[in-house]
Amino acid sequence: MLKRLLATGLLSLSLLQTTMAQQVEPCEEGEACTLALYSEVSEKWQFINPSRAHQDFAPYSTFKIPNTLILFETGQINSADSYSIDLHRYPQQSWWFSSWREPAHKLKSAFDHSVLPLYQQWSADLGKTAYEQYVAEFGYGNKDVSGPVDRFWLGDSLQISAVNQVEFLRKYKHRQLGLKDATYEEFEPVFLQRSGQNVRLYAKTGGGMLPEGGARGWYVGIVEDAAGSHYFAFNMDAENFSQLAKIRVEKALASLRAFNVSVPAMKD
Predict the structure, then answer these.
(1) Which domains does the chain have, with CATH numbers?
(2) pLDDT tens, 225-245?
(3) Whole-angstrom distance, CA of residue 207 vs CA of residue 117
(4) Cα(243)–Cα(214) distance, integer angstroms
(5) Beta bridge partners of 44
(6) Which of 109, 124, 164, 200 sits in a 20 to 30 Å window from 51, CA-based?
(7) Which residue is catalytic, options 12, 14, 39, 61?
C-alpha cells in the first residue's frame, strides 16, 4: 500500500516549488514537454509541441480543479470551515509533508498544498456515482472514473490532454459547467495563485511518477490581464520528481512569456 501511495498520491503534489537560481528556459520543440495556449484576445490557439498537446495523460492534482467544484456543488465542503484528516481511514505516514500534518486545514490550504488524504476522504464520502455524473457533464478528459474513487485521477483510469484541460477551463470561466453561480464564486479565491496590477493568475500543479521511470508534471490555469483571458495547460517529463518540482512552474511561465503572456510575480 505504501509503495502504491508513493507512486501516486505522494507524488501528485503541488508542493516543492523551489525558486531556481538559474534562468529556466521555456519548453522547446522536440523536448518532452508541451504548452497549449488559447487567448480570447486573439481567439487563436498556440502550441509548443502540438502533437503532445493532444496526448492524454493522468491529470494528477490538476483534477483538484474540477474536484473542488464538484465538492462545492454537492455541499461536501465550503471555504469557511476547517477540516481534519480522518487518521483512522488515512493513517499518517512517514512520507507525509509537514503541511499535511497540521491538525486542521482550510480549503485554500488543502488546495494549494494538495493535501491528498483530505481530498481522498472527501471523494470517498461523495461516492463514485457523483463523479460519473459530473465528469461526464464536464466533458473532462476520457471521462473514465472507473478506478478507485479516492485515486482514479492519480495515474489510474482518468486521462486528459493539454488541449482538453484548456477547453475545460474555458467552460469553467464562462460558467458553462451546469453549476450554481455560488459554486463558481466560492471557488475563484481558492483557484487564485498570484495577482498584480491588472494581472491575475489562477493555476494548479499536478504530477506523479511514471511506471517506466521518471516523472510527469502539469501546470494549468488562466491568466487574466487588461486584454482578456489566456487559458493554458503545460506538462513536462523529468528524470525524477524532485527535478520536476524545481522547474515545473517556472518553465511553464517562461513558456507563456515566450508567447507574450505576462504573469504577476510571486509574492514574498
Answers:
(1) 2-258 (3.40.710.10)
(2) 998 999 999 999 999 988 999
(3) 16
(4) 10
(5) 39
(6) 200
(7) 61
